[in-house]
Amino acid sequence: MSGCGDDPGTLPGRSLHPGQADGVVLALDEPLSFWGGVDPCGVIVDAHHPQRGSTVAGQVLAMRAGRGSSSSTAVLAELIRSGHAPAALLLAECDAILVIGALVAAEIYGTTLPIVQLAHDDLARLHTGTRAAVLAHTAPLAATVIAKSR
Fold this sequence. Notes:
- By secondary structure, the chain is an alpha/beta fold.
- Helix content is about 20%, strand content about 30%.
- The protein has a seven-stranded mixed beta barrel with strand order 1-5-4-3-2-6-7.
- Strand 3, helix 1 (about 70-80) and strand 4 (about 90) form a beta-alpha-beta unit.
- Helix 1 crosses helix 2.
- The chain starts with 8 loop residues before the first strand and ends with a strand.
């Protein structure tokens, strides 16, 4: 850690799906289901979600866990195919449904979506607007998230 105030610095994690990405963090207050919670353009449409109206497309999406239906696998794979998926997923809890969506998209479409599991405390250090670079090696190897304050 950097020890410099709000700067999250380098956060170690566990790779759930390989890839690399960088972008702006969208830190969700609540878990999100991709099935019924996100439209085909990557906009959060769940009427009860605190970040309703925000887009996940191209963002480094940070959330405690996924929520819900196994259909989220297909929705996430389609978002990846169409270019409306997050740039990366950062989770505090492993979510096999989301990992399978990334695996399917990698196999069928040849695209990657890095998914990294971070410690709860480290995930909480990431705030919306923070820039982050994500490097996830082949699972279950280590992963790194390098973040800078807004």
